[in-house]
Design a protein that fits this description.
This protein is an alpha+beta fold. It contains 8 helices and 12 strands. About 40% of the residues lie in helices and about 20% in strands. Strands 1-2-5-4-3-12 form a 6-stranded antiparallel barrel. Strands 6-7-8-11-10-9 form a 6-stranded antiparallel β-barrel. The C terminus is likely disordered.
């Protein structure tokens, strides 16, 4: 009897060990099939309830699909508006050549971007991953390899995450709030901050004009619109900006952690070495290192600074917005860097419906076409 009991435990351990040791491609295949099944259920393809008539269920399904299409069209219009803002920036004569190169690159990849709808989010990995309805079949239809592993995912000019698995008709996106993504960023102050503010004001004005169900009287709505228009006109559009502290951002959500956390943690922020953006600066005072001209100090970090990608991580192209600084931790004794907290500029990640996938860094459409031939 004891021998039979031990045999059961041995068999159980062997099965568990085999599951842990399965090859990654096999595990990903299981996850993809499970995700597709869950998405199928969520779209209402399987009916477990008989309480509603077929006609009501059909109408509810059509309304749901219509709402999804309206949301997708709204996202497409907003994306086009953000691209128009990029075009306006490019026309500014005072813009530095390297900023012009960044904008041209972003305009180029935006022209090749592929819209994708969110089809499933695992509650256990809510702030880490999501699934979208594009994959290798999409590449075949487009005749270009845009949907690839490490393809950046954006919304407007802000980064959402990056693709870490590509299936036939679905792909998994790892969000910037996940612990595994560590984009290289830089604190930016001045022109780009102001442009980000103007874009947000435009979005609010658009909603005020479009919506009639807001709890505001006509007088209150007109007053609010006048104030926003005045703010937009008075915000400086001078192309002067400062690119200061450099560091790495990291999400605070981990897989299998059943929590919603959109806070980003920044580590290693300093400006110890000169580069093409300017001279090295002291950590605490912001003074130029070994400066003999007594130029005014500029703090290398402030709450409200915009954090944009540098392109040094090999994943995100330079110039994408990631987050805004919300907190700067006091430096520890003997430390030579700052740690910070930041909020994503993409907005509420919980309500994402449509995102845009751009080719991975280093992608060449000409090379892709040659490989297909």
């Amino acid at each position: 009897m004891k021998r039979q009991r031990y045999q059961r435990y041995i068999i159980l351990c062997a099965v568990l060990f085999a599951l842990v040791s399965l090859p990654s491609f096999f595990v990903e295949s299981i996850r993809t099939n499970a995700m597709g099944f869950c998405a199928w259920i969520s779209r209402g393809s399987i009916k477990f309830s008989k309480s509603k008539s077929p006609e009501i269920e059909r109408l509810e399904g059509e309304n749901h699909l219509l709402r999804m299409e309206i949301g997708k069209l709204r996202s497409l219009l907003e994306q086009r508006e953000k691209v128009a803002h990029l075009t306006q920036e490019l026309k500014m004569p005072e813009l530095a050549p390297r900023r012009c190169d960044e904008i041209r690159y972003l305009l180029g990849v935006n022209s090749q971007s592929v819209p994708a709808s969110v089809i499933y989010r695992d509650p256990g990995n809510w702030s880490s991953t999501l699934w979208v309805n594009v994959g290798t079949e999409t590449n075949r239809q487009l005749k270009k390899e845009v949907i690839q592993k490490n393809s950046p995912v954006i919304l407007g000019r802000s980064a959402v995450g990056a693709i870490d698995y590509v299936g036939k008709n679905q792909s998994r996106i790892r969000l910037i709030t996940d612990f595994a993504l560590t984009p290289s960023v830089r604190a930016v102050r001045g022109f780009q901050q102001n442009m980000h503010l103007i874009e947000n004001v435009d979005a609010i004005l658009r909603q005020l004009t479009a919506r009639t169900d807001l709890p505001l009287t006509t007088v209150e709505k007109n007053t609010f619109k006048t104030l926003l228009e005045s703010l937009k006109e008075n915000v400086s559009t001078d192309a002067v900006s400062w690119h200061l502290a450099k560091g790495v951002l990291q999400g605070t959500s981990t897989p299998l952690a059943r929590s919603v956390n959109h806070t980003l943690r920044g580590i290693g922020f300093n400006y110890d070495f000169p580069d093409e953006e300017g001279p090295a600066r002291e950590l605490l005072t912001g003074k130029v290192v070994n400066d003999t001209s007594n130029s005014p100090p500029i703090p290398i970090l402030r709450v409200g600074d915009l954090l944009v990608t540098t392109g040094m991580d090999g994943l995100f192209p330079p110039g994408l917005r990631i987050a805004e600084v919300t907190r700067i931790f006091p430096t520890r004794e003997g430390a030579y860097t700052y740690d910070i907290e930041a909020a994503p500029t993409v907005g509420n990640l919980d309500t994402l419906q449509t995102v845009f996938i751009i080719p991975p860094v280093g992608y060449s459409q000409e090379e892709s076409m040659e490989s297909e031939l």
